[in-house]
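Fold this sequence, please.
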Amino acid sequence: MKPRTWVVDLRHYIGEDGDFADMPDAAFAVALHMSAIVEWVTLAGAGRELTQTNVPCCRRPGRRRCRGPIVANLDEREDAVVWSCLACHEGGYIHHWQHTLWDRRGESALGRLPSGTTH
């Protein structure tokens, strides 16, 4: 099975309240995966360099879960979170993640930073 390249607009998974919209289970699984990548990248402060995340790969080649690590970064030129699995090479671009519930810029791993505080 050839790896896919995902091009995702995160707004397609968000309801009017800013949280996940109602959607079929398969779409919800995609939304969870993509939002977890966004959350990890923005919370970790990943920059231009690909950084290994704690998000597991969701691909299932041969009906067996891929155990490869996902690396991701913020690509300012594409205005996207770019990600890839190092084992199966599944990957993609996540657009329109800014100002969603999963955009964690300005927070630390211990919680939101006080107003006016930067990293």
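Residues 112-119 have pLDDT under 50 and may be disordered. Residues 25-44 form the longest helix (20 residues).
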